[in-house]
Amino acid sequence: MSNLRFQALNAVLTRSVPEVTLPSPKISDFFGCNVFDRRKMKDYLSKEAFQSVTDSVILGERIEREIAEQVASAMKAWAISQGVTHYTHWFQPLTGSTAEKHDSFFEPSGDGLGLEKFTGDALAQQEPDASSFPNGGIRSTFEARGYTAWDPSSPAFIMGKTLCIPTVFVSYTGEALDNKAPLLKAVSALDKAAVGVAQYFDKSIEKVNASLGIEQEYFLVDLALFNARPDLYLTGRTLFGHMSAKNQQLEDHYFGSIPGRVLAFMQDLEIESLKLGIPLKTRHNEVAPSQFECAPIYEEINLAIDHNQLLMDLMDKVALRHNFKVLLHEKPFAGVNGSGKHNNWSMITNTGKNLLSPGKTPKNNLMFLTFFVNTIKAVHEHADLLRASIASVSNDHRLGANEAPPAIISIFLGSQLSNVLDEIETSRITGKMKQEPTLWTNIPKIPQILLDNTDRNRTSPFAFTGNKFELRAVGSSANSAAPMTILNLIVAEQLTKFKVEVDKLLKKGEKKDVALMTVIKKYIKESKSIRFEGNGYSDEWAEEAEKRGLSNIKTTPKALDVLVDEKSTRLFEDTGVFSTREIHARHEILLENYFKKLQIEARVMGELVNNVIIPASVSYQTSLIENVKGLKEIGLQEDAYTAQLDIIKKLSYHINIVRSNVLEMVNERKKANVIEDAREKAVAYDEKVKSYFETIRYNVDKLERLVADDKWPLPKFRELLFIK
Ligand code: ADP
Ligand code: MG
């Protein structure tokens, strides 16, 4: 083992920077070249088929079988022209990553010959033997079938020599087993509700798309060093490791100049992403050493999420070519910042209007205020659900760790918009103010908010940033579909309620603008407690939030409870986004994921302690003992080896603590493992097993500081974070 660390360090020293060349100096020449996009569809499809696919994408209309047949053969023709041999339905099971099962186009015809085939049926639906995907008890083993069904709104693409067709994944009995199916339902619910409300202002609005731009943070470590750390390759994070003397305290990494090897990786990643139609735009160093970020330009939400899933996959593949490993874990290194995935979200109409962009005229402002305040109200009503949607064992390390938003959901608006809402709250809208001119003067002017708004608050989990909301609490490894399903769903529900309230006032004969403002004002008042402009990292905020009645649920097993409570169940059933069976299954899967990951971490800890760390410490201790014996032998007194004795004793001290805590932890694990109920088991893992991690780690890190450097087997933080 000890050899492996030094072999790895040697390997890093001999790395060269691979040359990366742009396929063409103009990005537009190769952007989307691996995607069966609209342009290619137009070339390969009949007019009728092209129109049908377009309608399906824009209006959600069904695609007839005959058309599917045409699309399939067009896709095949295009793919084969690109050297593709296989196709796969590409889907997002609840494992968190993506899944694919490749089939060859080639089919033997029985006479020793054969031909390339791809039918409409094969495009529209597949039946992967899916018994090993998480299903939360929905599929009993005797009914292991699952179906994948084509999602025409996300274009097919080529990865390697395979044509990938984005699909949803459902069980034989129709329950969603993936992340995409519920997202599509929530997005469509939002569309319907938002159009209903938008029509108060503009009858030409027929469609509202949620838009999403995802900023992705990640760490890069050298592949050889990564492979010398079993904790990294088995759990995605370092379970041990003393902090490097230099870390992020000088703040010299953020936006700093990008090291050559990293830059080459980024360029390569960008090229591969652009070829797949992912509009990567931004790259920079992040706060922690070896931490970076990339972000595409925002897109329609379903596509943006597919693209982010694809991006994570690409990062992994491209990194290998550069002898890097990408760490998407939320907290790979204790002591420096973790990684998140900022979800920039808005709503955009078919007329091209961003509903969260303040307008120049009062009428536009009223429309903005309507959507703005409804979003705030939705988050106020369902803050716990949003919290649950970002809960995971790895994100627990980050939320509330004074570097990422706290586990308390609150909304930051910036002083200008806060003032606007305060003004409305205290203004009198009803009563005498029924004449138009008076009303408009009572809608405060909303400044065209500076897009490069300096009024930024990095400590808020949900912040308004000029023309969009930014959910910052999402974990870096997460599939954004989970939180975005919830966000779209709760805003949809809220807008529907809003319309009912406004319509009621209209029926009573109230003027439209007065009716709108009346309900808006009421919502501002009702949702006030969720707004917070101060420092979200401070202890005062935790106290204040508690007074306001906001929840602060720190760990996943408990944060997930809300998914299956009565209020949520009703919301899910009413909107059709999750059936009760589906949400219970999901709850179960999330809990299982939680304790299974902790179980793996606990096992890795035990293994490393017993087989790597204690042996290394003992071996060093033995060499000290030999030394002391020798000094004694040549007749020296104790003052000649006090230091050695001290180290020998300290080593024993920490070895004993580490060993006894591991034994106790294993005991607790055994107890937890026999618990049947998933929630109870997850709580036991959280409270009884995980509670040993800190002590074990603390003492292992002490040993790291005592043992001679050349005897320490695991690459150190300074090497992982600084050597490239
Ligand atoms: P930041 O300053 O927050 O780091 P970035 O430029 O890195 O900003 O990322 C902002 C993200 O927000 C980008 O993906 C951008 O395309 C996206 N964005 C901008 N406008 C909208 C919008 N109307 N809806 C959704 N996302 C948007
Ligand atoms: Mg941002």
TrEMBL record:
Question: What are the GO MF terms of this UniProt record?
Answer: glutamine synthetase activity
Q: Which BP terms in the Gene Ontology apply to this protein? A: glutamine biosynthetic process
- UniProt domain GS catalytic: residue ranges: 179-613
Q: Which InterPro entries match?
A: Gln-synt_C, Gln_synt_N, Gln_synth/guanido_kin_cat_dom, Gln_synth_cat_dom, Gln_synth_gly_rich_site, GS_Type-3, GSIII_N
Where the record annotates domain GS beta-grasp, the positions are 85-174
Q: Which SUPFAM superfamilies match?
A: Glutamine synthetase/guanido kinase (SSF55931)
- Could you say which protein family the record assigns here? Belongs to the glutamine synthetase family.
Q: What is the recorded name of this protein?
A: Glutamine synthetase type III
